[in-house]
Structures are given as C-alpha cells and as structure tokens.
C-alpha cells in the first residue's frame, strides 16, 4: 500500500471512531445531556465537534507516521495495536456516556483511555517523534474531558 493510501486510511479509521460516537451523542445532547448539572468550565456543546474532528485527524496522521515505518517491525505493530485499543475506548466512551447515560462507567472508560493514550504516546515516541507530538493535543483534551466527566458524575 502506498503512503497516500496509508494516510487516507489512517485518518478515515480515526475519524470513524468519532462518527460512531456522534451516533450516540447527537440525540442525547438536547435531551438527557441538557438536563445535567455541569461544571463552570464546561464549554458550549458547539465546541466539541470541531475539536474532536481535528483531534481525530491529528491522531490519524500520527498513526500514519508510525505505520509508514513498516508493519514488518514488531514495535510498529505493537504501537498501532495500542493505538487501535485506545481508539476503541474512545468510541466506547460516547456509547457509555451518551448512549447508556452513565457518567460513572464513562469515567472508568475515560480513565482507561487516558492510560492507553499515554501508552500510545510512549510507543510512538520510540518510533516517530512527530507522531508522538501530534498526540499531545489529544491527551490534553482527554484530560480536560476526564475532568468534565468526573464533575458531571459528582454533580449529578
């Protein structure tokens, strides 16, 4: 597979995690989510879509930078496996929080996701420094999202 196709595939796969989440999120925002008490630092709902779309694109580019080093390398396969694991946890968060209306279990998921992202960053660092740096905005946003998730759980 050539690099252009790898890049497109990596970005599309990453964005698909967001699309899965959106299916559960869109209907819950004006109904269930609107009724929740939220922390003072909770941004407007309109911020989340553009931020997540950008983060998924950055994640896809990061995965591509690692993938293009070659799947024959064991460290590349491991790093991409962990990347896919954190991506599944990412998609699951929206299903748990918005679909199942469960801030507590979503907090468990986002904690595991945060740890998996850190693990991904460590593995990507060993293969591609630019790939690692592309994940920094993601871990920062997920840290903020974890704060929001925790606060919503406590407040409700």
Reconstruct the topology from this structure.
Blueprint: H1 3-25, H2 45-67, H3 74-99, H4 103-127, H5 129-134, H6 136-155
Helix pairs in contact: 1-2, 1-3, 3-4, 4-6
At a glance:
By secondary structure, the protein is mostly helical.
Task: Give a structural overview.
The chain has 156 residues and is mainly alpha-helical. Helix content is 79%, strand content 0%. The chain has six helices and no strands. The longest helix is centred in the middle third of the chain and has 26 residues. The radius of gyration is 16 Å and the shape is elongated.
Keywords:
156 residues; mainly alpha; 6 helices; elongated
State the share of residues found in helices, binned by percent: over 70%
| Rg estimate, integer Å | 16 Å
Mean pLDDT: 97
Give the number of helices.
6
Kindly, what is the distance between the CA atoms of the first and last residues, rounded to a whole number of angstroms? 49 Å
The total strand number stands at 0
Q: Which regions have little confidence, pLDDT < 50, spanning 5+ residues? A: none
What's the main sheet like?
Answer: none
């Amino acid at each position: 597979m050539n690099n252009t196709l790898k890049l497109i595939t990596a970005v599309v796969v990453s964005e698909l995690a967001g699309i899965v989440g959106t299916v559960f999120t869109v209907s819950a925002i004006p109904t269930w989510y609107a009724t929740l008490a939220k922390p003072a630092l909770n941004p407007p709902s309109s911020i989340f879509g553009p931020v997540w779309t950008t983060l998924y694109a950055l994640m896809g580019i990061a995965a591509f930078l690692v993938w293009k080093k070659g799947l024959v390398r064991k460290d590349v396969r491991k790093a991409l496996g962990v990347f896919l694991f954190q991506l599944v946890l990412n998609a699951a968060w929206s299903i748990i929080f918005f679909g199942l209306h469960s801030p507590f279990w979503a907090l468990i998921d986002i904690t595991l996701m945060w740890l998996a992202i850190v693990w991904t960053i460590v593995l990507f660092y060993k293969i591609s420094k630019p790939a690692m740096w592309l994940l920094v905005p993601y871990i920062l946003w997920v840290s903020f999202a974890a704060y929001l998730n925790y606060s919503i759980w406590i407040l409700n």
